[in-house]
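Dear H.,

Thanks for agreeing to be a second pair of eyes. The structure we're designing against is below in token form, covering all 360 positions.
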């Protein structure tokens, strides 16, 4: 604080001298002598030295405190009166001492009182301005602290909502996987059931590894989705034809965890599984400019043919709400029927992670 104040008041000294010189030149008068110049410098040095104390008084006696406004205003007016009077009396005295000249105390007193009467209204404005700055700075700091607390609260609430949405998905996915394994056991397909249990273990480990993260790499999400599809593949066998169309080089793109898996689950359970002959599920991912495009499509019976295909099932509704929390208007999620395909299309802002975990 001290250095900026000295610079400000140093600039004020230079400004005073320059304006005085220009004014004298314009009217053809002589430049004021050394005593006047020294006295002005001394006055400004008084102001520079006293500024921290004035700022402190603004914090100590705030004018916005209810029930104390008039009392604090009176204190500030008294301090201003005393300070301005003292500086105008002390400045000529110190000037004479600095120049080594003899001085008459009565003359110095008259000169100081005359200067006080001439400049008091202007000096009071400067004093009030400094008090205003002293009042504004703590108020601004308090406002920033309040905004920071509010922002942290909003972030905490958003994180809690995201976590609640993720927790909604995990048991749903687990129950469906266990149902698939149960179907294998009931039909006597023990080898497939054992393999599916191993896949379920991989799936649960992947879920636990990402449960506290808002975003994971596309590679991790694809791995988790593949583990889930392997369980469904064991249950449905040749009835499920799963295909992957992943553009090269985008595996490090960041997406919310458990985003693709519930969409693929919808495609399997409300698409492929509803057809006696089975069907296809295609997962597609590519990058277009600064956007990541994801698509899950199936050639099942289509929207409205099953309870979860109308776009209001847990998977789609959960995905919409999570994407809204994370990306706001920067995302898109569309469900459509085109020809034999039911498509869920997503667009997100593209951002990736380097090999060492730094933003790419």
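And this is the sequence the design step returned. I haven't edited it by hand at all.
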């Amino acid at each position: 604080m001290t250095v900026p104040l000295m610079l400000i008041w140093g600039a004020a000294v230079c400004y005073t001298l320059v304006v005085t010189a220009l004014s004298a030149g314009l009217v053809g008068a002589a430049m004021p002598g050394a005593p006047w110049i020294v006295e002005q410098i001394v006055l400004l040095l008084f102001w520079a030295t006293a500024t921290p104390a004035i700022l402190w008084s603004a914090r100590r006696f705030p004018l916005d405190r209810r029930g104390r406004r008039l009392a604090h205003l009176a204190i500030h007016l008294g301090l201003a009166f005393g300070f301005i009077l003292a500086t105008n009396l002390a400045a000529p005295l110190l000037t004479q001492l600095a120049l080594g000249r003899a001085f008459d105390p009565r003359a110095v007193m008259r000169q100081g009182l005359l200067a006080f009467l001439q400049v008091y209204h202007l000096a009071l404005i400067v004093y009030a301005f400094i008090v205003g700055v002293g009042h504004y700075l703590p108020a601004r700091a308090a406002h920033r602290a309040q905004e920071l607390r509010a922002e942290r609260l909003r972030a905490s609430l958003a994180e809690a909502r995201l976590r609640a949405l993720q927790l909604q998905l995990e048991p749903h996915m687990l129950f469906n996987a266990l149902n698939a394994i149960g179907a294998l056991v009931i039909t006597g397909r023990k080898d497939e059931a054992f393999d599916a249990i191993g896949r379920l273990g991989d799936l649960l480990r992947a879920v636990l590894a990402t449960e506290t993260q808002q975003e994971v790499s596309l590679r991790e999400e694809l791995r988790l989705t593949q583990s889930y599809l392997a369980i469904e593949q064991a249950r449905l066998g040749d009835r499920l034809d799963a295909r992957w169309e992943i553009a090269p080089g985008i595996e490090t793109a960041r997406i919310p965890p458990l985003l693709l898996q519930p969409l693929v689950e919808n495609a399997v359970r409300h698409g492929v599984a509803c057809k006696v002959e089975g069907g296809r599920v295609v997962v597609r991912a590519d990058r277009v400019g600064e956007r990541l495009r994801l698509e899950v499509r199936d050639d099942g019976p289509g929207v409205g043919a099953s309870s979860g295909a109308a776009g209001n099932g847990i998977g789609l509704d959960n995905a919409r709400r999570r994407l809204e929390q994370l990306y706001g208007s920067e995302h898109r999620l569309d469900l459509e029927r085109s020809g034999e395909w039911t498509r869920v299309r997503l667009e997100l802002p593209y951002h990736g992670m380097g090999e060492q975990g730094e933003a790419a």
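Two observations from my side: Residues 105-186 form the longest helix (82 residues). Helices lie at 2-27, 34-60, 69-99, 105-186, 190-210, 218-236, 260-269, 314-327.

Warmly,
E.
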